[in-house]
Specification:
- The structure is a homodimer.
- Chain A is 73% helix and 0% strand.
- Chain A is built from ten helices and no strands.
- The structure holds a DNA duplex.
DNA sequence: ATATAATGCAAGCACTTACTTACATTACGG
DNA sequence: CCGTAATGTAAGTAAGTGCTTGCATTATAT
């Protein structure tokens, strides 16, 4: 049981890579083992089951508490500056866990529900934080909107859409278009919400 | 070959229903036949292959020319009114083909590329139409933005995100939250872009 | 009423997949 | 250097999958 860290990791990484491209059902244990440069039996000795293998991978999906901390500590209560920071952090987190999110998105009939819950946690959390922020800004007379929750949703969905439409799909892509989008969209929201 | 329309349709509908939930790989031909109330052999006699069955289903994905016609005929050159119409039409089209889009989104290693292309056609098309519209509105001094293409993308991704996050996932849902979102988000964009 | 086409049924085939077992080989720390 | 743990190799199992075949049954149209 004293896992050779390196071997387990190689298998996990290979599984994540393949499954994020071909889905859980479409990826075989033989493929994973081959991609990891390891015998298929070793895979089963480490994880017992294909499903447990993926669950282990998702366990490493450490939900970033970054967002909570950001909302507690780093906000300047200046709309444009804050939205920019929020959007950039959002994409950083999503990007870091991109492959796992893709796996959850593709889904499968034989996948434990826990995985989908984990994948949906971050967006729901952000929606709440953002709604509260906008409400507080309204009380400071620094934001004007008829419906802070819907405004928060709009901002979230815009970034969600940008992420899943593969804006930053390539591995070490230059990220320039992403930055352009973030700046332009934040400018738009700031202008719309400023009283 | 003179297909009994009703039988073929039952099979196609069952396939779309199941695959949109469990993915192409996760759905068996036996299941499809059972859900259609038909013998599995009948399925193969009609479509020959599981893959050809899905391709036939996608052939019914009649890409709505509605959008093009809308941009040619129905625009009032009044920002708020036009964005509202565009957003509503977008969600109408997406919703009509929701299940097929879900199948493409889940994907599979053994799915013909044609299917993904078809699924991506509508968003790309809308982006172009919307960019051109915003540019024209700028020339009329009715819209102000530094980057019409990015603005179009932002609007598109926002609606794309709202759609895929399952805002309207339930079959005959009341659609009230969707309407709320559309109105609030259009108001926001109109305010941001009005000079 | 009879020919023709569409469907059902039972069985099976060829192949893949997740997973197992038994045994040989290597790596490695005390 | 030796014992133990980790890995490789080969073979196989049980179940599931897409798909086929042969034949019986039902519907439909002329």
């Amino acid at each position: 049981m004293n896992d050779n860290q390196s071997t387990s990791d190689k298998i996990l990484m290979a599984a994540i890579d393949l499954m994020s491209e071909k889905g859980y059902d479409g990826t075989t244990t033989k493929e994973i083992a081959a991609a990891a440069g390891v015998n298929e039996v070793t895979l089963f000795r480490h994880f017992g089951t294909k499903q447990k293998l993926l669950e282990t991978a998702f366990h490493r999906y450490h939900y970033a508490e970054e967002m909570t901390k950001l909302f507690q500590e780093s906000l300047k209560w200046e709309l444009h500056t804050d939205l920019l920071l929020i959007s950039r952090t959002y994409h950083k987190i999503m990007n870091r866990n991109r492959k796992l999110l893709y796996i959850a998105q593709k889904g499968s009939s034989s996948l434990p529900q826990e995985i989908y819950q984990e994948a949906g946690r971050h967006p729901r959390h952000l929606r709440n934080l953002l709604t509260n922020y906008l409400t507080a800004m309204m009380e400071k007379n620094k934001v004007m909107t008829a419906n802070p929750e819907m405004t928060a949703m709009s901002f979230m969905w815009m970034n969600y859409g940008a992420f899943y439409s593969g804006l930053n799909a390539k591995g070490a892509s230059p990220d320039q278009p992403l930055d352009d989008f973030i700046e332009e969209s934040v400018r738009l929201f700031a202008r719309a919400l400023t009283p």
